[in-house]
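Service request form, structural biology core

Requester: graduate student, group of Dr. S.
Request type: structure prediction, single chain
Budget code: on file
Notes: please return the result as structure tokens.

Sequence provided:
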Amino acid sequence: MLIIYLVIAWAAGIILAEATQADLPYGVIAVGLAMLFGMVWPFGHRRLTFALACIALVALGAWRLDEGRPEQSPGHIAQYNNSGWTTIYGTVRTEPDERDTYTNVQVEVDRVESLGAERETHGTVLVRFPANSEVAYGDRILASGQLRPPPNLDTFNYRDKLARQGIFSFLQPANTRILSHDHGVWTREVLIEAKSRAQGFIEDSLPEPQASLLSGILLGDDKGMAYEVKEAFNDTGTSHVIAISGFNMAIIAGMVATFLGALFGRDTWSVIVLSILFITIYTIFVGANAAVVRAAVMSGVLILAPKLGGQTYVPASLAATALVMSLLDPWVLWDIGFQLSFAAVLGMALLTPSFDRTFRGWMQRSFGRHSGIKVAQWLSEPLIVSIVAQIFTLPIILYYFGRLSLVSPIVNLLIVPVQSLILLLGGAATATSFVYAPIGEYLYDATWLCLAWTTTVVRQFADIPLAAAEFSLPQWSLIGLFGGTFVMTVLHGTRPPWFEHLWNHQIVRFALQGALVVGALVIIGALVQQAIRQPDDELHVIYLDMGQSNSVLIETPEGATFLIDGGRYPSRLLTALGDHLPPNQRQIDVWLITSDDYNDIGGLVTIAERYDIEVVIDGIQNSNEQEYYDLLDALVEQDATILDPHVGWRLETGDGVSIEILSPRTDRVTPETMVLRLAYGEASFLFINELAAADENLLLAQPHLIQATVLQAADHAMDKSNSETWIQQVNPQVVIVHNDPSSRDNGAIGHVMARFADREVYRTDQHGTIEVITNGKQLRIRTESN
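Core staff response, request fulfilled:
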């Protein structure tokens, strides 16, 4: 346990230096503490010396990060960013990163031409070549264009990621030229060529997406896999199988150890050494990039663990591994892949034995002793390893990606057992193809069965609604969840004396168990909340039953929320929002106010106090109603963006929904003239609160704008509204009428309703809340009364 505490102190120093950005002489501090440690240590003050050692390592960790910050020294190529047309000369230092539409190449630059002068320089530039470029590792190239800082992406800070690799410049060149070849390290060129041939064998023998899947599993190169297929693996929580990860390395290590164990006997040093040697050779073959090396090191820890102390050894070994890797590159602590590999291997090492025993016992009770042992032997290793790895990596996945797969356990149960076969058959097919390709073809045919099973299961389950749910918890809770799980698992696995002493106290045990139960309830509650009313790739237009009031809630296919007016009953509106929005949603993206009538806005101040309003489209502008100004005050207090609309104003969402403001007047929008038209695919909706006969006639002159699939009847279908000509021009399939029979303003007048005789008519006084659901082509209608 001592090394674990020391490595935690080292990592804390690295994180502290990055968080504070303080310019302190960490090296001097560390040396001073080390000298003080040396003076105290001979006197046997164990606690004092241990504390000094930890503090010294905090300072050393901070110093290592400070020293490891990439710097732009004089003459660095980054000094030419944003300086006009530039030509660079350099050598490709890594294997090109090929994508569907471009190829990213890291070029080590030694000369630059800028502003008519040629100079020596140094540093690395990320050059974006066109797709299918012939550029290769070791090529000397020329590229011309405008150097710029690397771009930032929507999902993460790409610029910071490249800066940690010492890359501060990005070039999308207008022209490029390969000047010469073979300037790289010859051994690396040989390995890249062998890897390229292996990928060629796979692509020649298998169709897509099976070829890309096998390339990802064996060679760590899944770039040929279509985006939709990758998303299916992400949505089903099975992305760990399509790359060389700690999970795949663990399976490879297990297979090799099992095979060698049959030859030399289990748990002998020869088996361990040969297994590690095989993983080392395999790591070098597939490119030995940071992710692969990390997975190989973690797998080596698992292989050594049984021989050097089992569960007690693994945390210490992982701590030592983290120390070495962060000593070489302190930024590795921020690498998502490192965090996932570390958590997965720790979980597999500490929890797999107990999970495995439980699983084998359950299988024997379910299938009988003889059959249960056989079934457990087939399923235990890959299935239990997968489940345990997912348990430990779940908080990290939620923290970074905010997505939880609800079908992951089932899908993993179905596909994980065949991953060993894929690795075995695919590896044998690829190795055989180097010797005699026709035999490799037959082995690829056998591999295809397992690959096709994997891709079919993943894609079918990914199509299930709510296969992946958006899941968000406060960052502090996820950090606490992972930290608590990590600490408790390590302590339970290693059993230090002080922990045993605490654990034997009934009060402490009861408190920890209670915290575990509360934590589990919090997670279950959050999961259930996230699973309810998740976006389902369809548009939902919900005409809320608010009596003689205009109130429409709109949810776009990807979950954006619009509200039109709302009504005068805050409790009814809050209940309706709670019924139709996800339980944890407290935000309305766009609120459209089309009326200052008390019936339409009388209860909205309470909504503004309970929900965060991002944008308000205010169609009132001038009003004599106090309720309207109270609402404005509430919106201003929460810093909502308030916009004044104009005729032709249009809002488009990223998922294909558009809302446009129509008006018979070209000079201004008023409550009496504001008409909203929503379009999604072939479906369209007209939302009308009030519309005078004269304004109705003006809109009839624009028939191409007013045609709609669903029409909200104007003025609650009162007398002198919704003329016969209007209905014929709009030509709706469905008519929605907001009406309250108890209102003093009579709506749904008989002769007006008769004009809707040839349409589907839904009334809130008869059907309650009415929900229209569409995929852009077909409509489905749900009502409160059915």
